[in-house]
Amino acid sequence: MRDWARCEADVVRLMNRHFTRGRGGARIQHIVVHYNDADGSVEDVWNWWQTRKASAHYQVESSGRVGQLVWDRDTAWHAGLWSENLRSIGIEHANRRDGTISEACLDNGAHLVAALCRLYGLGRPQWNVNVFPHCHFASTSCPGQIYGSQKDAYISRAQLWYDRMGAGGAASASPAPTAPSSDIDSLAREVIAGKYGNGDDRRRALGANYDRVQARVNEILGTGSKPRTRAVDVDALARAVIRGDYGNGEERKRRLGANYAAVQRRVNELLS
Ligand SMILES: [Zn+2]
């Protein structure tokens, strides 16, 4: 993965059919785990799903390489049950002939489960609570040995990654209704990356954080309606500071307010 905390896959190979845009108002609540019933690559599954009316959000290869085929905000056709498609993220895993998955595939698949549980605030991974085998929803052998001989190994690895990721404090690490301000910035960057869709989808996904995140998005994109500090003539203020118009220390800080950091940086530049 390029970025575990943001769930950015190694490769993005988006489906052009056999998925549905948006989630019909549903919230992401589950992860559904699949196996290919073959040893596929990201490109292989993309090709298979051109003719099969199916898709999933992610494919984990035997090498551990991860591909995104449907954005999390869209509905992939994987669970065999429409209501479940709407509220879940589907992860496909390449498997060997006996239905087991490689160590690299297990490790990265479980890590991806953990990362998604963190990103979407789903809680610590647990079978049939927030992580489901495909066979829970449909009559199928899927996900093979991931829910057979590797069932405990898979979920305990996901829990291990989930706990480890918690130490770093990922964006949606806690089920608390509002995020600390350091996380508002990462949420805003995820919004810009498209993780939370638009309009009502975005509002619902961000919940209590919506207003603060949206304000930060506007700041980053420069589309905010309120006057922004950047509009201030930092250079002129810096020259006034050097002339002594703004005093020193705390007084300078207080008088420059929100512009202080930018102006002080410019002062230091001018004086260096
Ligand atoms: Zn399946």
Helix percent reads 40-55%
Bound molecules: zinc ion
Beta strands, count: 8
CATH homology superfamily of the largest domain: Peptidoglycan recognition protein-like
Distance between the termini: 42 Å
Name of the CATH class of the largest domain: Alpha Beta
Side by side, the strands of the main sheet go 1-5-4-7-3-8
| CATH architecture label name of the largest domain | 3-Layer(aba) Sandwich
Strand portion: 5-15%
Could you please describe the fold and organization of this structure?
β4 (58-60) and β5 form a beta hairpin. The chain has helices at 42-51, 82-87, 103-119, 151-168, 181-193, 199-206, 210-221, 234-243, 249-256, 260-271; strands at residues 11-12, 19-20, 30-35, 58-60, 66-68, 75-76, 88-93, 131-133. It has ten helices and eight strands. α3 packs across α4 (151-168), α5 crosses α7 and α8 packs across α10. A six-stranded mixed beta sheet has the order 1-5-4-7-3-8. It starts with 10 loop residues before the first strand and ends with a helix. It binds zinc ion. Zinc ion binds next to loops. The site of zinc ion (ZN) has 5 residues, from loops.
Q: Strands, helices and their partners?
A:
Layout (H helix, E strand, L loop, with lengths): L10 E2 L6 E2 L9 E6 L6 H10 L6 E3 L5 E3 L6 E2 L5 H6 E6 L9 H17 L11 E3 L17 H18 L12 H13 L5 H8 L3 H12 L12 H10 L5 H8 L3 H12 L1
Helix pairs in contact: 3-4, 5-7, 8-10
Zinc ion binds next to loops.
